[in-house]
Write a structure and sequence with these properties.
The complex is a heterodimer of chains A (552) and B (315). Chain A has 552 residues and is an alpha+beta fold. Chain A is 32% helix and 21% strand. Chain A is built from 18 helices and 21 strands. Chain A has helices spanning 2-19, 49-58, 105-118, 136-142, 170-173, 184-189, 247-255, 266-274, 276-279, 302-305, 310-318, 322-330, 370-384, 401-417, 430-438, 457-460, 477-487, 495-511, and strands at 29-34, 63-65, 71-73, 76-81, 87-92, 151-155, 158-162, 208-212, 219-224, 238-243, 261-264, 282-295, 335-336, 389-396, 421-428, 444-449, 515-527, 531-532, 535-536, 543-544, 549-550. In chain A, the strands form six sheets. In chain A, strands 11, 12, 13, 14, 15, 16 and 17 form a seven-stranded mixed beta sheet that branches. A four-stranded mixed beta sheet of chain A has the order 1-10-9-8, covered by helices on one side. In chain A, strand 8 and strand 9 form a beta hairpin. In chain A, helix 11 (310-318) packs antiparallel against helix 13 (370-384). The relative contact order of chain A is 0.14. With 315 residues, chain B is mainly alpha-helical. Chain B has a domain at 100-271: Orthogonal Bundle (MetI-like fold). Chain B contains 13 helices and no strands. Chain B has helices at 2-29, 42-51, 58-70, 86-121, 126-140, 143-157, 170-201, 204-211, 216-244, 248-254, 259-268, 274-302, 304-309. Chain B is flat and about 85 Å long. The N and C termini of chain B lie close together (10 Å). The chains are: A alpha+beta (552), B mainly alpha (315). The interface between A and B is large, with 58 and 60 residues.
C-alpha cells in the first residue's frame, strides 16, 4: 500500500513539474473565446459569425471595416464608380498570399464565380436583392454558366464589376467574407472539400496566418502574418481561440487569466456589475441580430388561419412588455425593439442617422399598451367571430439560456393581457424550429435574424411575397413594389428617396404587425486590462483585431 | 469453441447491420434539415436534397451509403464543417477521446482493483470502510462535477494544469479529464472486486486450499482474484465503451475536441448533419458490439469452466 501511495504521489508531483511549461505564442498573443466551433474556413461555405470572424482575421476583402463599420480600402487600394453607378473598378494593391503568390484580380473573379456556381447559403448576396452583380440571378437560379457573371480582370491589378442596378452600399458589401478572394491555383490543386481543413490547406493574405487547425478544433491559434500588406500597423503577435460552451466556464477562465476576451451571459452580468474589479472590464456591444415573433398567416395553421387577422397580431404585439423582457430575462444590455429594422447597424450615408435610432416612431402600433392591445383584440374577436384562441409558440432550446425564459415571459404576458388567448410553448432544437418554419408548420415562432450588410434591406427584403424567409406568408403588392423600386427600380440612384421609401416599407410592415419585433441582442464582453482597440460591429464581422493592441 | 466464436462474430455483424439500417432510416425521419438553410430558397434546398440523393428510395440510399462505408468513406458533413471529409474530423476526435478514455480506463481499473483487494483483505477494518466511502462517493459524484472541482483547484486557484484542454500540451491536458472520468470506473470496480473477493474467500474451495497449506499472495492471485475477476470483466465492458465514446459534458466543459461533443454538435447545430450522426452511430454500435464480443471471448480465457462447457458449441 505504501509503495502504491509513493508511486501515485510521484506521478502527481512529476506531472506538476511538467505543467510549469511556458505559454504559447509571442508576448502580444491574446486568448479569445469563441462560443461555437468554426464551421468552415471556406468563404463560400461559411455561414456563422464565428467562422466569418476567423476567415476575416486571415483573409482581406477588397474593403475592410473601420472602427465605425464604414468601408475603407483593404486589398483594393482605390476604386472608381462609373457615372451611372453600374460599373465598379477596383485597383488591387500589392499583396501576397502566404505561399508567396501575389494577390491578383483573378483571385476575386475565381472566388465569385465559384460562389455563384455552388450557390451555398450566402450565394444570394450576389443576386438582385443585394449585390446586383450582373447575371448573378441567371446563374444562381436559372442554371446559366458561371462564366457569364459580371466580373472580370482586364489585368492582374484591375477588377471590374458590372452591376444590374446601382448599389449604394456595394463598398460595404465587399468586406463580407462571401466576397473574399481565393487563390485559384491553390484551391483547385487541393482534393475537393479539403480547402481550409488545416493550416496547410489554407492560404492567408490578411493580418494573421492560421497556425494549427483541424475542423472541430476546440482550440487553435493564429499568428501574425509578417508579409501582410499592412503588417506595420498590426500590433498583436497572435490570437489563441478557445471554444467555450458555457459562459460560467468562460467567466472563471477570464478571472483566472486563461482568456483575455470572453462573452458572458445575461444572468452573469448582474454579478459582474457587482464586482468592482470585473465591472470595469465589462463592455456591452451590439450583436446585431434581432429576435422577433413570426406569425403564420396561412390557413392550415393557428386554428384555420386566425393569425391572418391583422388586429389579432397587433393585439399580441402590443401586449408584450419588451422592456421587462430585456431587463429581467435577457439582462445583457440587449435593446427593447419596436421597429422592423433593428437599431445600431444601418446609418444613412448622407445624414449619418441610424435608420432605427428613433424607437418610438411606430409607437401607435407597437408599444407596451395593454389598453390598446385589448382594443385590437376586441376588434379581432368581432372580425373573426370567436372569443378564444389557442396557439402554439415554437422556440429553440439550444439558442442561448435566455430564449426559454423569454418564451415563458411572452406566454405569461400575452395570456394575462389578452384574456381568451392561450399560448402553448413547444421547445425544440434550432434545426427543427427552422424546419417547421420552412415547411409552414407552426402558429407562432420565436426567431431571430442577423443583418448581413449595413442596409435596412437586409431585414425589409424578407417580407416580400415568395421570399424564402417570409415564414408568415404575408403578402402586400404595394410593399413588393416599394422594395423592388429600392433594389433595382426608380429609387436606386437617389439615395435619400430610397431611404424614405424604406421607411415607408417599414411602416407597412409595422402597421400590419407582420412580425412582432422583441429585442436587439447585445454581447456582454469582458476585456482584460491592457487589451485595447478590438473593434466590435453588429454587422458582418462581430470582432476585428486589426487595431488591437495588448499592453501589460 | 471455434464454432462458438464464429457464431458470436456472425451475430455481431448482423446486429450491426440492422442497427445501421435503423439509424439510417431514423435519421431521415428526424425533423430538421440536414444543412443550414436559413438563407436558402426552396429551390436551392430541393437541389441540395437531390444532390445528396435524399429523394431516392430508402433502400437505394442505404445500398449506396453502405458501398461507400465498406470502402471506409463516411462521406462529408452536410452542415458541420461542411465540405470536409468526415474521416479527418472523426479521426482527430476519436484519437482525443480514445487517449483520454484509455488513460481513464487504465487508471480506474488499476486503482479500483487495488482498492477492492485492499478492502477485501481488511474486511470490516478501517481500510474497508475507507474504500467503501471512496467508492460510494465515486459512484454518486458525476464525472463533470469532479472535473469542475479539479479545474477550479488545479487550473484556477493554482495554475498547475491548463484550464482548457490544449492539444499542444497534451499530457498535462489529459490529467484533469482522465482523472475525473476514471472516478466512476474506479468505484464500480472497487466495489465489485471487494464483494466478489469476500464471497470467494468464504467459499469451500478456498478453505480447502488454505487447509492444504496454501496462503498469502499465491492463494489470492491463483484462486480468489481469478474467480473474482469474471463479474468484474462483465461490468468493465460497458464502462470501457462509455469512456471511449467520450464523456459529453466533460468534453464540453474542458474544451476537448472529442466524439461526444461531435455527436451533440451534429444534432444541435443549424442543421442536423445526417452523415455525422450516422457515422458516429455506427461507430458507437460497433464499439459496443465489439467489446461485448471480446468480453465473451475473455470469459473463456479467465474461466476454464466456460471454455470446457462450451466445447459442444452450444452455450
Amino acid at each position: 500500500m505504501k509503495k502504491i501511495l509513493c508511486l501515485v504521489l510521484a506521478v502527481v508531483m512529476l506531472s506538476c513539474l511538467v505543467a510549469c511549461g511556458s505559454e504559447n505564442g509571442g508576448e502580444k498573443t491574446i486568448g479569445v473565446m469563441l462560443s461555437t466551433n468554426v464551421m468552415s474556413l471556406d468563404c463560400n461555405l461559411a455561414t456563422d459569425g464565428d467562422s466569418f470572424e476567423v476567415i476575416a482575421d486571415c483573409i482581406d476583402g477588397l474593403t475592410q471595416m473601420d472602427s465605425e463599420g464604414a468601408a475603407i480600402p483593404a486589398l483594393a487600394e482605390s476604386w472608381d464608380i462609373s457615372e451611372d453607378g453600374m460599373t465598379w473598378t477596383f485597383h488591387i494593391r500589392d499583396a501576397k498570399w502566404s505561399n508567396g503568390d501575389p494577390v491578383t484580380a483573378n483571385d476575386f473573379v475565381f472566388a465569385w464565380k465559384t460562389a455563384v456556381q455552388t450557390n451555398e447559403e450566402y450565394g444570394y448576396m450576389f443576386d438582385s436583392s443585394v449585390g446586383c452583380v450582373k447575371n448573378a440571378d441567371a446563374i444562381l437560379y436559372d442554371g446559366a454558366d458561371a462564366d457569364t457573371l459580371g466580373v472580370s480582370a482586364p489585368d492582374d491589378k484591375t477588377l471590374v464589376v458590372e452591376l444590374e442596378a446601382p448599389v449604394s452600399f456595394f463598398d460595404s458589401l465587399m468586406y463580407f467574407p462571401t466576397f473574399y478572394p481565393l487563390n485559384e491555383k491553390f484551391y483547385t490543386g487541393l482534393e475537393a472539400g479539403t480547402y481550409g481543413t488545416s493550416g496547410d490547406t489554407f492560404l492567408s493574405c490578411g493580418a494573421f496566418i492560421l497556425d494549427d487547425y483541424t475542423p472541430g478544433a476546440a482550440n487553435f491559434s493564429l499568428v501574425k502574418n509578417p508579409d501582410y500588406w499592412d503588417a506595420a500597423n498590426i500590433k498583436l503577435d497572435g490570437i489563441n481561440y478557445q471554444v467555450v460552451g458555457s459562459s460560467d466556464n468562460a467567466l472563471t477562465a477570464f478571472k483566472g487569466n486563461s482568456l483575455d476576451l470572453v462573452t458572458v451571459s445575461g444572468a452573469q452580468v448582474a454579478a459582474v456589475k457587482d464586482d468592482k474589479d470585473l465591472s470595469s472590464k465589462l463592455k456591452v456591444t451590439g450583436a446585431g441580430y434581432m429576435w422577433y415573433l413570426s406569425f403564420s398567416q396561412t390557413e392550415k395553421n393557428a386554428q384555420g388561419g386566425m393569425l391572418a387577422n391583422a388586429n389579432l397580431r397587433l393585439a399580441i404585439t402590443n401586449a408584450i412588455d419588451r422592456e421587462s423582457l430585456v431587463e429581467n430575462y435577457v439582462m445583457d444590455g440587449s435593446l427593447a425593439t419596436y421597429t422592423a429594422v433593428p437599431p445600431q447597424f444601418a446609418a444613412s450615408a448622407t445624414s449619418g442617422d441610424d435608420f432605427s435610432g428613433d424607437q418610438t416612431k411606430f409607437a401607435d402600433v407597437c408599444s407596451y399598451n395593454v389598453e390598446k392591445a385589448q382594443e385590437y383584440f376586441e376588434a379581432a374577436k368581432k372580425e373573426l367571430g370567436k372569443d378564444s384562441f389557442e396557439f402554439t409558440m415554437i422556440y429553440g432550446n439550444n439558442e442561448g439560456d435566455e430564449v426559454t425564459k423569454v418564451a415563458q415571459a411572452i406566454k405569461e404576458q400575452v395570456e394575462a393581457n389578452l384574456p381568451g388567448v392561450v399560448l402553448n410553448l413547444q421547445a425544440m432544437s434550432k434545426a427543427e424550429r427552422l424546419d417547421k418554419m420552412q415547411n409552414d408548420n407552426y402558429d407562432v415562432a420565436l426567431t431571430r435574424w442577423g443583418p448581413d450588410y449595413a442596409d435596412p434591406m437586409t431585414y425589409l427584403g424578407m417580407w416580400i411575397t415568395d421570399n424564402a424567409n417570409n415564414y408568415g406568408f404575408w403578402s402586400n403588392a404595394d410593399y413588393d413594389q416599394l422594395i423592388k423600386d429600392c433594389t433595382t427600380g426608380k429609387f436606386v440612384t437617389d439615395y435619400d428617396a430610397r431611404w424614405a421609401a424604406l421607411y415607408e416599407a417599414e411602416t407597412l410592415v409595422m402597421n400590419d404587425a407582420v412580425i412582432a419585433p422583441l429585442y436587439t441582442k447585445s454581447n456582454a464582453n469582458l476585456i482584460v486590462d491592457g487589451l485595447t482597440g478590438v473593434d466590435f460591429h453588429p454587422v458582418a464581422l462581430n470582432r476585428v483585431y486589426k487595431n488591437a493592441d495588448l499592453t501589460k | 469453441m471455434k464454432k462458438y466464436v464464429f457464431k458470436r462474430i456472425l451475430t455481431a455483424v448482423i446486429t450491426l447491420l440492422i442497427i445501421t439500417f435503423l439509424l439510417f432510416t431514423l435519421v431521415r425521419i428526424m425533423p430538421g434539415n440536414p444543412f443550414p438553410s436559413e438563407r436558402m430558397t426552396d429551390e436551392a434546398i430541393a437541389a441540395k436534397r437531390e444532390e445528396m440523393g435524399l429523394n431516392d428510395n430508402i433502400f437505394v440510399q442505404f445500398w449506396n451509403y453502405m458501398k461507400n462505408v465498406m470502402k471506409g468513406d463516411f462521406g462529408k458533413g452536410t452542415s458541420l464543417y461542411n465540405g470536409a471529409p468526415i474521416k479527418t474530423v472523426l479521426g482527430k476526435s476519436l484519437a482525443n477521446s480514445f487517449k483520454i478514455g484509455g488513460i481513464a480506463i487504465l487508471l480506474g481499473t488499476f486503482v479500483g482493483l487495488v482498492l477492492g483487494v485492499v478492502a477485501a483483505l481488511n474486511r470490516d477494518k478501517f481500510m474497508d470502510v475507507f474504500c467503501s466511502v471512496v467508492s460510494i462517493l465515486g459512484v454518486c459524484v458525476p464525472a463533470y462535477v469532479f472535473l469542475i472541482f479539479l479545474q477550479y483547484n488545479f487550473a484556477y486557484k493554482t495554475t498547475l494544469l491548463p484550464y482548457f484542454f490544449d492539444s499542444r500540451r497534451f499530457f498535462e491536458s489529459t490529467i484533469i479529464p482522465s482523472v475525473s472520468m476514471s472516478l466512476f470506473t474506479m468505484s464500480t470496480i472497487a466495489r465489485f472486486t471487494r464483494n466478489e473477493m469476500v464471497e470467494i474467500m468464504d467459499s469451500d474451495y478456498v478453505l480447502l486450499a488454505e487447509s492444504k497449506g496454501m496462503y498469502g499472495s499465491k492463494l489470492i492471485t491463483r484462486h480468489v482474484l481469478r474467480n473474482a475477476l469474471i463479474p468484474v470483466v462483465t461490468v468493465l465492458a460497458p464502462l470501457v465503451v462509455d469512456l471511449l465514446t467520450g464523456a459529453l459534458v466533460v468534453e464540453k466543459i474542458y474544451g476537448i475536441q472529442g466524439i461526444g461533443k461531435l455527436m451533440v454538435d451534429a444534432i444541435s447545430g443549424e442543421g442536423i448533419d445526417y452523415n455525422y450522426v450516422l457515422a458516429l452511430g455506427i461507430l458507437y454500435s460497433a464499439l459496443y458490439i465489439g467489446i461485448m464480443l471480446i468480453v465473451d471471448l475473455v470469459y473463456g480465457l479467465l474461466d476454464p469452466r466456460i471454455r470446457i462447457s462450451s466445447k459442444g458449441g452450444d452455450k
